[in-house]
Amino acid sequence: MSGTIDITHGGAIAVDPDALRAVARGMDALAPEFVEAAAAAGRAWRRLGELPGADASVGMDALRTSADRADALERECTTAAASTLLMADVYELVELRTQLAGLEIQNGADAASLTARIAALEASDPRVSEMEQWLLAEWKDGRYAGLDGPRFDQTGLGGLGAFFAGAAFLGSQRYGMLRPGATLSGTAAPVTVTAVSTKTPPAPPASLADALRRIPSGGTGQITVEKYTMSDGTKRFMLYADGTRSVTYGGDEPFDSESNLQLYSGQESSSYLATVEALEAAGAEPGDRVDVVAYSQSAMAGAYLATQSEFDVQLQITAGSPVHPSLESDQLLVELRSTDDPVSALAGGGAPGGSGSPDSMVISRESDPGASPLKPHRLDTYIETAELAAESGDVRLGAVDDVWRELTDAETIEQTEFSAQRD
């Protein structure tokens, strides 16, 4: 494994603004405690100073130093709280502008509300807008940093990194960023979906890396669906879907270059049809909860499952996705990205603001500067990234861990692997 792990709320935002404000309120509430501590130490120092010989036996200097330090901590706490609130405003401003840009109708009630809040943030402190520009500039400069590594300068690959960076920039202006409620257009070639194996897993995934390992890779099937029958009788489903299986265009394999191009340009693909039909064959019905764990091409299909399908997608975990979806505030989005992955770069670095629920996150790293150009996009590389994230101990992973704990209440688990073929 290599590369330092980086976990953010998404885009230029490190932490959800509301989470920052909660931290600021906590520090602000703590400040008066330091004031009281300083006053108490000061009172003790003065009273002991009135007693003959107290200085020799009590350590009056240490007591006075404690009072001074408590005073300093109160000032530091108050300053840190104010700075944290300022940063929360900056992050919110970035997030609001992203939401506003995603609205197709700029004169709607939602747009007016966002515009009013943006104006209020800008008027609250002149530093907010200035820091927003600094933050965005730093994010934009670093979006494709991993594509200038030595792997792209090898013999026969000169300029490949610049090509992918240019394609990512141009493509993301139209295709890499999915608008809220994005839908596919057109009609794809039909598919035949066949169950090739059925198993009974002993337990649901135990971690993010464990979930990624359940993606079918290299076998007959491209899609695996787990059906969970919960103790209250309700059904839940986990979808695990692989990436591109063939670089050919328009053959029997639906997870091919044709489907890649169709999905990236917002067109219905045979691989998307196969994904929906596999879920239906496993027993999923409109309104059922379907959580998604998807790699590469299937991450694009999973994005549209979350924005246009009749399934209730509350969790979406993607690895190396060429797109960045704009999800609702009750949908948890976990994106794993390698900064040196040319396929992931097609998402253009994602949106400047976050997407999905406040617990949503982007987990990224530069995987291996000395490796071949396509190693950063391999599924096992993203499994390593998930393992590094778990080792980091970041508390934000708790939101995903809660899903695995919920699934342990299932009375039965049925796992079916499906193979799809374009007709």
Write up what this structure looks like.
The protein is an alpha/beta fold and 423 residues long. It has two domains: 122 residues; 280 residues, no CATH class. It is 46% helix and 14% strand. It contains twelve helices and nine strands. A nine-stranded mixed sheet has the order 1-8-7-6-5-4-3-9-2, sandwiched between helices. Strand 3 and strand 4 form a beta hairpin. The radius of gyration is 26 Å and the shape is elongated. The two termini are 41 Å apart.
Low-confidence stretches: 154-160
Oligomer status: single chain
Biggest sheet details: 9 strands, mixed
Name the average pLDDT: 85
Q: Count the domains.
A: 2
The SSE order reads: EHHHHHHEHEEHHEHEEEHHE
Strand segment tally: 9
Distance between the termini: 41 Å
Query: Helical proportion?
Result: 40-55%
Categorize the overall geometry. elongated
List key phrases describing it.
12 helices, 9-stranded mixed β-sheet, 423 residues, alpha/beta, 14% strand, 2 domains, elongated
